[in-house]
């Protein structure tokens, strides 16, 4: 049975006929979150693009020096000589032109004095002492009573003084042992032995294949008070011809006034500065002029300008020389085992012969100061208003190649040199020869390459010009 609910359902309560309140919602545009990936991508693109732009601009505008793959033959000649060791070097560039046993370690005797000479010249330059500084002869450096035919020395005694200049000249011009020993004692550090002093300077000059005991170059047992007790009696200063050439090269490059020493025929010195007791001694240059020069077989008219003789019974006659030919080219030479050690003539004749061999087999190419280097055109320069600069040789350089080579020597070519250097004396670039050649150890670009400078000061150092060319991928 179905029942119907007897009560009527009531309406919900309201405020009269007013509609019930409902919240009005406004449809506002939604804010999209920042897409970090897209932003990062844009930034990355800009970064890569700018880096690529800068990289291409840098690559396109980098300094460019181009060398030829075809190089002329300038390798050393195998010298034919009776000397046991021989070496010929271009005195300006350090190019090795001829050699025989250049790396054999040999006794160097009085050639050792070149090392003390270099150290003394450095001391003058550094202001540690002056040429006029007096140096006292000590008991150890007084060799006045020794046999002068066996031990070359001055007539100078303990307690007397000579100036640095007088001792230097006596050591270098007359090979005086006492002068060399006294000078080394004065120049060295007070807390080091003479051997340590020599070893220190040998290391500075990269004379790696050398051994040192005393500044006079005496065999150890003949060095008297300078004998190194820890060494063998027969120990002696030793070096390779290559090391001797390096030493001579450094003296000549750093102290060019050493030229012309053979022009000094005699040595003049005054003990204690007393000119009333001035003494004179024949120099090596004087001996050469009087006894050797006119006897030499010297068809090319070579001139001896220095540097130092040396000999022992074991090494024979030896000479490290500075030789000049008629065209003004200078050569550093080293000969050892050139005749008996008592013979003075043979070492000079052999030196003359080996330089002649070099000139018979090589031809020389010279680039003069302020001249255009072969193969060079206008170099591109982003600093220049025109976009180009004209480069010329700042200094003279000469190079040697075999006479069998056809044509002239070529050089590296400067395609682009972006520099704001405007001074005519400012070095812009170095260019080297397209040459297969050997050089002395330690030779730098400034020694054998040609320094280039602006021909005229026509390049305004305007940064805007540089940026203009750089940003346009200047080609």
TrEMBL record:
InterPro entries: Beta-lactam/transpept-like (IPR012338), Peptidase_S11 (IPR018044), Peptidase_S11_N (IPR001967). This is D-alanyl-D-alanine carboxypeptidase. The lineage of its organism: Bacteria, Bacillati, Bacillota, Bacilli, Lactobacillales. It comes from Fructobacillus broussonetiae. The chain crosses the membrane at residues 38-59. It comes from the Bacteria. Belongs to the peptidase S11 family. Keywords: Carboxypeptidase, Cell shape, Cell wall biogenesis/degradation, Hydrolase, Membrane, Peptidoglycan synthesis, Protease, Signal, Transmembrane, Transmembrane helix. Residues 80-338 form the Peptidase S11 D-alanyl-D-alanine carboxypeptidase A N-terminal domain. One of its GO terms (molecular function) is carboxypeptidase activity. It holds the Pfam family Peptidase_S11.
């Amino acid at each position: 049975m179905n029942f119907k609910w007897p009560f009527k359902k009531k309406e919900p309560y309201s405020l009269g006929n007013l509609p019930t309140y409902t919240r009005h919602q406004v449809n506002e545009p939604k804010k999209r979150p920042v897409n970090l990936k897209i932003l990062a991508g844009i930034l990355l693109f800009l970064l890569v693009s700018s880096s690529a732009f800068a990289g291409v601009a840098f690559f396109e505008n980098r300094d460019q020096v181009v060398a030829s793959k075809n190089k002329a033959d300038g390798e050393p000649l195998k010298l034919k000589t009776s000397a046991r060791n021989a070496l010929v070097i271009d005195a300006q560039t350090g190019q090795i032109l001829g050699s025989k046993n250049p790396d054999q370690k040999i006794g160097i005797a009085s050639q050792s004095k070149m090392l003390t000479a270099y150290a003394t010249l450095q001391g003058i330059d550094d202001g540690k002492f002056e040429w006029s500084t007096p140096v006292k002869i000590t008991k150890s450096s007084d060799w006045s009573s020794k046999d002068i035919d066996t031990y070359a020395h001055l007539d100078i005694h303990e307690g007397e003084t000579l100036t640095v200049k007088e001792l230097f000249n006596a050591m270098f011009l007359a090979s005086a042992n006492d002068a060399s020993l006294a000078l080394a004692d004065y120049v060295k550090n007070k807390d080091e032995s003479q051997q340590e002093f020599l070893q220190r300077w040998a290391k500075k000059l990269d004379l790696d294949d050398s051994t040192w005991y005393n500044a006079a170059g005496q065999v150890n047992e003949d060095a008297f008070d300078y004998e190194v007790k820890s060494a063998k009696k027969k120990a002696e200063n030793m070096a390779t011809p290559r090391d001797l050439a390096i030493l001579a090269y450094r003296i000549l490059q750093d102290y060019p006034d050493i030229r012309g020493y053979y022009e000094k025929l005699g040595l003049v010195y005054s003990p204690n500065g007393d000119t009333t007791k001035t003494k004179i001694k024949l120099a090596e240059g004087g001996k050469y002029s009087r006894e050797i020069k006119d006897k030499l077989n010297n068809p090319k008219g070579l001139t001896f300008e220095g540097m130092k003789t040396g000999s022992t019974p074991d090494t024979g006659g030896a000479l490290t020389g500075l030789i000049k030919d008629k065209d003004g080219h200078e050569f550093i030479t080293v000969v050892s085992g050139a005749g008996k050690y008592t013979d003075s003539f043979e070492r000079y004749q052999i030196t003359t012969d080996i330089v002649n061999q070099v000139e018979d087999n090589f031809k020389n190419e010279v680039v003069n100061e302020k001249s255009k280097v072969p193969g060079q055109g206008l170099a591109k320069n982003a600093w220049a208003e025109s976009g180009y600069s004209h480069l010329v040789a700042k200094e003279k350089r000469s190079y040697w190649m075999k006479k069998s080579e056809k044509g002239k020597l070529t050089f590296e070519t400067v395609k682009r040199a972006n520099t704001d250097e405007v001074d005519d004396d400012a070095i812009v670039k170095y260019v080297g020869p397209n040459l297969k050649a050997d050089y002395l150890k330690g030779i730098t670009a400034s020694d054998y390459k040609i320094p280039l400078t602006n021909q005229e000061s026509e390049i305004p150092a305007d940064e805007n010009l540089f940026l203009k060319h750089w940003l346009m991928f200047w080609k």
